[in-house]
Amino acid sequence: MSRNQDEQKQTKQEQEAAENEKMQEYGQMTLENNGGKKKIHLLSIIGEVEGHENLSGNAKATKYDHVLPQLAALEDDDSVEGLLVLLNTSGGDVDAGLAIAEMIASLSMPTVSLVLGGSHSIGVPLAVSTDYSFIVPTGTMMVHPVRMSGMVIGASQTYEYFNMIQDRILSFISTHSKIAYDQVKRLMLNTKMLTRDLGTVLVGQENVKEGLIDEVGGIREALGKLYEMIERNSSDGQQIL
């Protein structure tokens, strides 16, 4: 084996090691081994969305301070043609979740989300932040009011603040999906489903019926839709040129 071949092999091994490390640390990788030679970035939002405070070492978490720079780098990378977001999250920090959702929604490339397992609480805005969304038949989404941990001051200003936070969430969901603001609010404040809490749990097709999610499907449908959007995006770009 020549020296050049040795160097190429070593470079490939280093790239694979970097991808594996990236996948383990951030739940992200690049999909590019397809026949159409499309370069797609995969983002996994798993466990709890971590905010300004670190969660315990035993908890599965998506760190927003890791995800935001990666999304900015994607927008700056002309070689990446689309983003696929996989979700299985119990929710988490509101500000962190909305920050990620706003970043995804502002990307110029085609984006598709797929809810696997569940996308609860702040996971709902994350699921609808993409251009098109899927949920598996057994996937669930939970819409409920904002909760706070720690000491809460019992004053009218506190409740006004809670309402302001909920309004941000409701507005984002209704803007990026087919469900109206008042309908999301009705689901959020539902008292008939959860015995110890307000809110609504929707399974699979129910999310499509309510207008939260575009379609029921799995990874095949999600990737197929993303390829279709990339092709359409490329065709539109060629026409403009």
Helix segment tally? 8
Relative strand content: 15-25%
What sort of overall outline do the alpha carbons produce when their principal axes are compared?
Answer: globular
Rg from C-alpha positions? 20 Å
Distance between the termini: 46 Å
Low-confidence stretches: 16-20
Share of helical residues:
40-55%
Q: H/E series, N to C?
A: HEEEHEHEHEEHHEHEH
Biggest beta-sheet profile? 7 strands, mixed
Strand runs, count: 9
What's the pLDDT, averaged over the residues? 82
* Coarse structural class: alpha/beta
Structural notes for this entry:
With 241 residues, this protein is of the alpha/beta class. Helix content is 46%, strand content 22%. The chain has 8 helices and 9 strands. It has helices spanning 3-26, 64-75, 94-105, 123-128, 156-175, 181-188, 205-210, 219-240, and strands spanning 28-31, 40-50, 61-63, 82-92, 111-119, 132-135, 140-143, 200-203, 215-216. The strands form 2 sheets. Strands 1, 2, 3, 4, 5, 6 and 9 form a 7-stranded mixed sheet that branches. It is globular, with a radius of gyration of 20 Å. The N and C termini lie far apart (46 Å).
